[in-house]
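user: Kindly work through both lines:
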Amino acid sequence: MTTKTIKRRTFIAATAAAPVILPKTIFGADRKLNIAFIGMGGQIQGHVSNTLQLGHNVTAFCDVDPNQTNNSLNRHKDKIKNVNTYMDYRKLLEKEKSLDAVVIGTPDHWHAPICKAVMKAGKHVYCEKPLTHTIAESRELRNLSRSSKVITQTGNQGSASSNLRRSIELIQSDLIGQISNVHVWHPAHGWPNGGSRPAGEDPTPKGMNWDFWCGPSAMRPYKSGIYHPGKWRGWYDFGNGSIGDFCCHSFNMPVRALNLKYPSKVKISNVEKAGLETYAKTVTHTFHFPAEGKRAAVNLIYYTGGADMPPKHITDQLVGTFGNIPRVGAIIEGENGLLSSGLWNSQCYLKLKDDKKFIGHGNHGEAKKVAQTLPRANGHFREWTDAIINNGKTFASFDIGGHLTEIGLSGIVALKLQQNINWDGEKMKVIGNSEADTLIQKQTRKRWL
């Protein structure tokens, strides 16, 4: 692929800007990072804006669809003066010698291959959630992140919320007692769900490399408005539907607060239109975590599609405070009361047994007594860039992001098998069903890797 270079600054200007890439030991917190972006759809635009606001250098854009790259250039044209564009992430890594870090916002099936290439090139990496497309890929990236010297961050932005961190502190203080259930709900999405692959083929967008877009997944005919842009998540070859989209958000706080490792049982219920190639139209996933140490057994229940919701004794209390059942949400159910954290875990409302309604944690008398134990962040993206500059740590490294992804995608294994499963998370195995192995680690096309 050829490289298109937007009009560069003069040599004098480039020389004046040279200190931004010198070692942090000289400039400390003033060091400016050179950051590239791969997958130029809607989600990554906020990261480009964050980079510019923080004063770092937007070095390169990369996408197999040049239309998305051009849209990104136009969107940020008033603030970016010098950026290279690529269609091939391998060329980007080869040619951008001064690159410090990469942000990945591709469809899920490309996350793991590009993350591995970036990490092996010694570049810091931020990847959108879910971390990977399969369980085996998550385990591989978790292990690689532990041995690599690069700083990683998973794009579950609620991790930076002070309310998420406060919820962890309150739960771990035993304020609401032993937790029995975590209820998470989300209505139906507009992605293809419960259907079949459409017949026929349409022309690809001008200049787009559709074969490269399919990448490690099986090749299929291009159909306008079916896969790209934006609707790929409903198709198993490219995404994992609602549970893949939100497991890294909604499971984040309870998994941390309760130190949940792997579910021993994964169940599916209320399934409607579970397509062979697509996520179900409706399904309830139940992940059962056995008791461990002083913690009782916990069920993490994810309701999606609108056909099923948390039980009435939960929803009645929401209506009593908020006047309705929120469109999306998450409730932690404990022996002493409830904590409402929202789907992104960015809220923190308490309702103990003596409370008439949910109360924000800052106004709750009992919550005020619980000490702060976790650091607070000044933005999820900035936490990553600051960690790179200061050789620090992130709150949502690939280790935790991969773990959340593994939990969520065990629900996909059960859904594809159309049966409840006994799950050995450590070994990544469905107990008593070796046929499930192909759902945990897929065969990939190698052409674009």
Notes: The two ends are 15 Å apart (CA to CA). The chain has two domains: 4-159+381-396, 162-192+237-373. The chain has a mean pLDDT of 92.
